[in-house]
Amino acid sequence: MYHDKHQIISHYEKAIVFVESLASITEELWRTSRAPGKWTVAEVIGHLTPWDEFVVKQRLPFLFTGESLPKGPTVEELNTSAAKDSRVQSKEETIANFIKQRQLLIDALYQIVDEQWRQPFTIGNSELTLSGYFASLVDHDLHHFSQVRKFLRM
Q: How far apart are the first and last CA of the chain?
């Protein structure tokens, strides 16, 4: 397996383990803002799920077809909607949704042949490779997981 592909899938598998571990935190910690004006743990985890779904349904199927990519959602609108959903879902539901969608992403990544990880594609005015594209998504995860760990003192 291509090294970058392996690293990215490994990160996503570890992300599932991390989010599963959050099932043991109290409901109060799950729903407490990390700081004034900041998201709760529920909102941080909940906002990752629709982005995984977007990548699986609106990016991966189109990247190497030569077709135009579907227009992406407005970041602020998607994040606001996802945060709102996480406020009303149970902790168990938010975690289960994350795990289900993240596993679908992992499954999709396994289907991508190694050669495609180095093949360039264009999003907007940017030329990328899958390795570069997913490296930025991994960084996004790590940023948020770090925030959660710091808040929970993990």
A: 32
